[in-house]
Write the C-alpha cells for this entry.
Amino acid sequence: MSETILKVEGLNKNFGGVAAIVDVSFEVKKGELLGIIGPNGSGKTTLVNLLTGFVKPDSGRVFYRGVDITGKKPYKIAEMGIARTFQMVKPFYQLSAFKNLIIPLYSSRVRRLRGGMYGDRDDVAIDLLEDVGFERDSFVPYKVASSLPHGYLKRLELARCLALRPELLILDELFSGMSMSEVASTLPIIERLNGEGLTILMVEHRLKELFRIAHRVIALNFGSKIADSPPGEIMENEAVKAAYLGSEEEGEDA
Amino acid sequence: MNKEPIKFRKERLDRGIKARCEDIFALSSYREILYLLLPRVLPVALLLVFPLFKDIVGLYWEKVLVITCAIALLSLSWDWLASVGLISLGQALFFGVGAYVTGSLNYAFKWPPLITIPLGTLGGALICTLLLLPVLRLRGVYFAIVTLTLPLLLMRFIETTKILGGTEGLSALTPLPSLWVELYVPVFTLLICLFGFRRLINEDYGLVLQGIRDNDRAVMSGAINIYWFKTQAVFLAALVGSFPGAFMTHYYQFVGMPAFALDYSILPLTAAVLGGVGTFAGPTLGAFILVPLSEVLRAFGTLRVVFYSAILIICVVGLPEGVFHYIRRKYHQFERMVEVG
C-alpha cells in the first residue's frame, strides 16, 4: 500500500476565463480506493479528463508510476494501464454488448499482456460481462447496446475498462443514473476489484455508497482541493460543509 | 358451437434458424440452407452469367454492366467510409486520381494495362490518403465539404496549369486486351470487394472501425489510436475507389477532366442511399438499379432527368431505409404453415 501509482502536481486548467482546476495536487497509492467528491461544476470531470489526456492542462504535472504522462494522447495513457469510464455513457450503440468489448480487446496493450494471442476473444468478452453481473446465458451479451437500459450501459462501460486489464481504474460518476438496486449490486463488484489489488479513483455524487467503500476522499470546490481525509471525517470538514451547504442532506439520501 | 381445433399456425421461416442473434444460424435441413443461400448465390450467379449472353442482350447492355460495376465500386467505397463515420461527398477524388495516375503512366511510359491499372489503383489510393490525411480529424459535414471540394480543386488545377494534357486530356491510350477482360475484370473486382468488405467489417478490425463511427472517444480510451485506423480505412476506400478510375481509363482509352466530374461523387452517394446504407450489398444493389434505369430513360430524351429524379424521390420517400433493407426485412418475414401439437 506504500507505492505511489499516480502523482498529481499543481494542476491548473482554465476554460476561457473560468478556472476549472486550480493548483490541485494529490497522490494515489497502489491498491487504494480514492473517492473524489464536490458539488456540480467543481471540476471533477475536468480532473478526470486531465488525468486521461482528453484535456491538456495549462500547467502542472501528472506522473503515473514515476513516468510523466502530462499532455500525452488518451490512447497512449490507456495503453499504459489507466482505464476510465465516461459520465455520459459512450457505448458503441450499433454493436452487441459483447462486441463492445472486442474493441478494447483488440488494442495492442491487451494483445501484449496476453502474449500476442487472444484467440478466444468472444469468451473473454463474455467472461468480462459476467464479471460486471451480466449472465452469460441471458440475452444481454448478444443485445445491441442501443436497446439496453441506461444502468446496463453504465456497467458495460465498466466492463469496457476492465477489458484493458488496467492498473488504475478511473470511474467518472459510475452510479449516476443507476437505480438503487443496480448500485447495490455494482458496489460489491467495485469492492471485489479493489480487493484484487486494482487501484481505483472514483468520482462520485452518491456519497453514502462512496463513503462505505473508499479508503480516502478528496473534496473539490470551484476547482480547488478543499479537503483530503478518510471518508468518516470528510463531512466534518467546515470547508466541505460550506461547499455542500444545505445540499449535504440531499447528498446523503441520494 | 363446436369449433374445429386449430391444426396449423403460421411461423416465420427465419425463427427456427436464427440462434440468439442476427448472425448465428442453426440449420437442420436442406430447405433451410436453401432459404439462406438463395438470396446470396442467385445475384452472384446472375452477375457471372450475364456477360456470357452478350449476343442475346447486346453489346450495349454489356457496356452498361461495366459502368454499373464502376459506380457500384464507388458506392462500396462510400459505404466503407460511412461505416467508419466519415461521410464523403467526393468519390470523384478517388476515381479521378486513380484515372490520372493510370493514364499518365500509360501515356508517358507506354506500359500495358496489366501494370498501369494496379499501379494506378495503388498510387491513386496513396495520393488520396495523403490528401485526406490533414482533414481526418474532421467529422460529419466538415469532412464532407473537404471531400466535395478536392476533386473540383484538382480539376481546375489541371485546367489552369495545363499539366497532364490540360483541358484536352490524354488520349490514344492502350485499349484493354479483349472484351472478356473488359466485362469480367469489373465483375470479379466488384464481387471480391463486396464480400471482402462484408467480411472485414465483422472481423475485430472492422469492429474497431464501427466503434470509431459510434463513439471515437470510447475507442481512444480503449488504448487504440483512432487516426491510424481512420488512415487505414481511408486507404482501403481509396483503393476501391481508384480501381474503377484506373480501369475506365483504359476502357475509354482516354483520361481527362471529366474523371473528376461531380457525377462520380453524386451517383455513388445516391446509389448508397437508395440501396440502403451500412450493408455494402445495399449500395451495390442501388447502383444496379440507378445506372440501368438512367439508360432505360434515355428514350425520353430531355425528359429523362425529370423521370429519373421523380423515381429517385419516390424511392427515397417511400423506402427511406433503402431498397435492400426493405427486401431483406420482407424476406425474413416469409411464413410457413406448421402443424400444432
